[in-house]
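R.M. (postdoc): so does anyone remember the format we settled on? I'll just put the structure tokens first.
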């Protein structure tokens, strides 16, 4: 309740008579613990509830007077002090956001989560987080429909081209989903706002402590992967959005060394698969030269490795000698040991006999293959057919389990790209040798090896490629066989 003017005059006269300043009275109420609690609690509660109104009235009263600047400076100093303390606490507790470029590890990149960082910042610095909400949404105006409309420009043009098409059902569906669309758009705007706030606070933290540079480091590595021009990276580094070019190069060197060690460790386990394929890249130059004015397309090869799973051991892969003794390519093999060549019909028959049919007359006289085809047809009918059939989804039983194979997540590790074209025989062989070298496989007695390698002669190593990979490897093998035959004939003429 607002006091009447006579009551205010009486209170002011009392304060003047006893030489009591209002500011001193408030300070005493807030800091003096010797005052009786039953007397001060009412006034303190009133101060807490009316603090915002008091500050607003004070600023309004001081506006246009000589005291306005002093009041604004005092309030700004007060707020700045609290924000400064929050930033210090944020840096103190944000050691996980420190990214050393020269000692960068892939786990730092893989474990980073923007959502977690945003939550930690909001919990540690709530005032700073709230202030950025105000700064980034100062106008409180909604975004134009062209920017946040649920229907894109291409979709709008599509519907405009429809002439006399009956859109009643579609309009009804769109109207029913209007609230859901607005909710998605609001969430999308909130995500964008959160990203902006995290980037801004990251710039603030790096300006205070250069080691707190998780966001700039991630952006710098991303710019490197996109082949961003160095001048652009330099500008972004000066703005605090990215790390410097030298720091990016240090991070890439550290990550490459870690990746090479990991690939070598996996390769020497001998329980992995190698896969490779060709790719083309257009290496454009900003300033063409006479020698390379038109040659910019490069034919390269990419590769990856992934582990053998489902209980495969090294003893399972130790069958190189066994297979070579039975290979038709082995000129020294005993003819009785060579495995006869199988046609594709033999392979199909072998696959059919892996799990023989126990009884062809069970389940309406259908074989297992026919049972699965029937189940697949019904599954597609329920999931993608007319709406009427969706009511039978609960009655559709899964197919018969014969020999279940556990579903495991396969970890894929990319290897270093190779400057070979696997469209040729020599390119395939060079690729295989390079992959073996990256995997730490070779001759341990070779003194030229820069690191310790492992001999994989007794083991079988699996390689995967496209349709032409096997043909080219066989072509190379036949060439070697011809060379051996010719050499043997020269040494031992008949």
């Amino acid at each position: 309740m607002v006091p009447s003017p006579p009551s205010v005059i009486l209170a002011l006269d009392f304060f003047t008579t006893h030489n009591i300043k209002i500011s001193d009275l408030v300070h005493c109420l807030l800091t003096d613990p010797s005052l009786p609690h039953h007397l001060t609690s009412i006034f303190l509660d009133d101060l807490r509830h009316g603090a915002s109104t008091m500050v607003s009235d004070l600023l309004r009263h001081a506006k246009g007077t000589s005291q306005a600047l002093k009041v604004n400076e005092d309030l700004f100093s007060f707020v700045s002090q609290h924000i400064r303390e929050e930033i210090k606490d944020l840096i103190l507790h944000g050691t996980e956001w420190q990214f050393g470029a020269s000692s960068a590890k892939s786990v730092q990149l893989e474990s980073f989560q923007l959502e977690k960082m945003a939550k930690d910042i909001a919990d540690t610095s709530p005032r700073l987080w709230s202030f950025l909400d105000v700064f980034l949404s100062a106008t409180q105006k909604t975004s134009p429909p062209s920017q946040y409309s649920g229907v894109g420009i291409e979709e709008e043009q599509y519907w405009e081209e429809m002439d006399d098409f009956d859109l009643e059902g579609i309009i009804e569906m769109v109207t029913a989903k209007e609230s859901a669309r607005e909710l998605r758009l609001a969430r999308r705007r909130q995500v964008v706002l959160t990203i902006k706030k995290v980037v801004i606070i990251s710039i603030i933290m790096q300006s205070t402590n250069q080691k707190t540079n998780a966001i700039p480091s991630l952006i710098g590595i991303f710019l490197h992967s996109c082949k961003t021009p160095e001048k652009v990276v330099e500008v972004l580094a000066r703005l605090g959005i990215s790390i410097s070019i030298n720091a990016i190069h240090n991070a890439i060197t550290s990550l490459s060394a870690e990746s090479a060690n990991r690939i070598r460790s996996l390769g020497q386990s001998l329980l992995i698969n190698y896969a490779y394929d060709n790719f083309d890249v257009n290496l454009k130059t900003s300033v063409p030269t006479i020698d390379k004015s038109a040659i910019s397309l490069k034919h390269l090869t990419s590769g990856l490795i992934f582990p053998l799973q489902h209980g495969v051991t090294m003893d399972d892969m130790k069958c190189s000698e066994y297979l070579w003794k039975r290979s038709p390519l082995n000129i020294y093999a005993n003819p009785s040991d060579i495995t006869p060549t199988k046609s594709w019909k033999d392979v199909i028959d072998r696959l059919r006999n892996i799990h023989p049919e126990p009884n062809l007359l069970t389940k309406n006289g259908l074989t297992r293959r026919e049972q699965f085809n029937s189940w697949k047809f019904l599954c597609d009918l329920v999931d993608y057919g007319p709406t009427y059939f969706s009511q039978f989804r609960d009655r559709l039983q899964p197919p018969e389990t014969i020999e279940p194979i556990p579903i495991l997540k396969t970890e894929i590790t990319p290897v270093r790209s190779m400057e070979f074209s696997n469209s040729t025989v020599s390119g395939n062989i060079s690729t295989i040798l390079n992959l073996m070298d990256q995997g730490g496989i070779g001759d341990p007695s070779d003194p030229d090896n820069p690191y310790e390698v492992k001999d994989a002669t007794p083991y079988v190593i699996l390689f995967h490629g496209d349709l032409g990979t096997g043909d080219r490897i066989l072509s190379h093998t036949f060439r070697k066989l011809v060379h051996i035959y010719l050499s043997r004939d020269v040494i031992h003429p008949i």
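R.M.: ...and that's the designed sequence above, right after the tokens. Also worth knowing: Residues 142-156, 162-167, 488-494 have pLDDT under 50 and may be disordered. The CA atoms of residues 425 and 474 lie 9 Å apart.
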